[in-house]
Amino acid sequence: MARVDYLNDPNAPKANSIAVAVSVFIQDDDGRILMIRRTDNDLYSIPGGQLELGETLAQAAVREVREETGIECEVTGVVGLYSNPNHVIAYDDGEVRQEFSICFRANLLGGDLRTSSESKEVHWISSSKLSELNVHESIRLRLQHAMDARVVSYFT
Q1: In whole angstroms, what is the distance from residue 77 CA to residue 21 CA?
Q2: What is the pLDDT of residue 151?
Q3: Annotation marks residue 121 as catalytic
Q4: pTM
Q5: Which of 70, 77, 29, 30 is nearest to 47 (CA)?
Q6: Which residues in the chain come in under a pLDDT of 70?
Q7: Which residue among the candidates 52, 121, 132, 137 is catalytic per the annotation?
């Protein structure tokens, strides 16, 4: 299913739903960041997705990373809570979600990089190379907050 993210766009469609989502910031031993290139919008992102019934937020984060990248991780903290009503995500089935995402920090445990139906590329990216990637502004904000190593979690 294709998607389009709108941020602070007066022409964005009006939200008609909200869903709990997670995203995950992980670095390897060399400080590189785990990034995917999404199949639904062709943008680079940190791994993430929707909470499923019967799982905790941390379980959802670990599952999404595993499904999208082949990497095993352990959640260690919260980068921030993102709920900007001016960020909506329109899907081709007519759903338009208001953003509600919890971004976690996690440690790498193992695994081998692989793509999935949701990720056409999976890479460890140096922070100095992030500016070269086509990344949505909402994900850039999460990356910046994670790299700032904030003492207090960000929230909107």
Answers
A1: 16
A2: 83
A3: yes
A4: 0.95
A5: 70
A6: none
A7: 121
